[in-house]
Amino acid sequence: MSDVEPTEEELDTDDAAEEGDDVDYESGDVNTVSGSVPKSVLDYVARQIVDDPDSVVVESDGRGNRVDLRLHVAPDDMGKIIGKRGRVAQAIRTIVRAAGAREGVEASVDIVD
């Protein structure tokens, strides 16, 4: 440890929380990446469904309170992700949309070749 005292600027970094300003940590306004929850949910669900979980790649494009997620899987796993009549894909989209709503973002999923 050094004997260097912190500067006044370093001490003033937490003024909002100390002075009782409205800092809502549960709202996701502080140090969070918008859309990280739906992206994590999509990644987890996709890896559980496919035979080759290492081939799962989730790309995200966030703008404001909207996040567009693109899911890439191995060609052999496309049928498992889409399912009969697209029911698995629709279920995945519903789960990810719900995870986004909980975080306060509108999430959409595209399954890419």
Descriptors:
113 residues, alpha+beta, GMP Synthetase, Chain A, domain 3, 3-stranded mixed β-sheet, 5 helices, 39% helix, globular
Describe the model:
With 113 residues, the protein is an alpha+beta fold. It has one domain: GMP Synthetase, Chain A, domain 3. 39% of the residues lie in helices and 19% in strands. A 3-stranded mixed sheet has the order 1-2-3, covered by helices on one side. A hairpin with a 2-residue loop joins strand 1 and strand 2. The N and C termini lie far apart (54 Å). Mean pLDDT is 82; it is low at 13-25.
Q: How is the topology of this model organized?
A:
Layout: H1 8-11, H2 15-18, H3 36-49, E1 57-63, E2 66-72, H4 78-82, H5 87-103, E3 106-112
Parallel strand pairs: 2-3
Antiparallel strand pairs: 1-2
Oligomer: single chain
Which shape, going by the Cα principal axes? globular
State mean pLDDT (0 to 100 scale). 82
Count of folded domains = 1
Task: Examine the coordinates and then state which fold CATH places here, giving the name of the CATH topology.
Answer: GMP Synthetase, Chain A, domain 3
Helix content class: 25-40%
The total count of helices amounts to 5
Main sheet: which strands, in order across? 1-2-3
Determine the N-to-C terminus distance. 54 Å
Strand content: 15-25%
CATH secondary-structure class: Alpha Beta
> What's the CATH H-level homologous superfamily?
K homology (KH) domain
Give the total of beta strands: 3
Encode the helix/strand succession as letters.
HHHEEHHE
What ranges have pLDDT less than 50 throughout 5 or more consecutive residues? 13-25
Main sheet summary: 3 strands, mixed
CATH architecture tag: 2-Layer Sandwich
What structural class is derived from the secondary structure elements? alpha+beta
Rounded to the nearest angstrom, the radius of gyration is: 20 Å
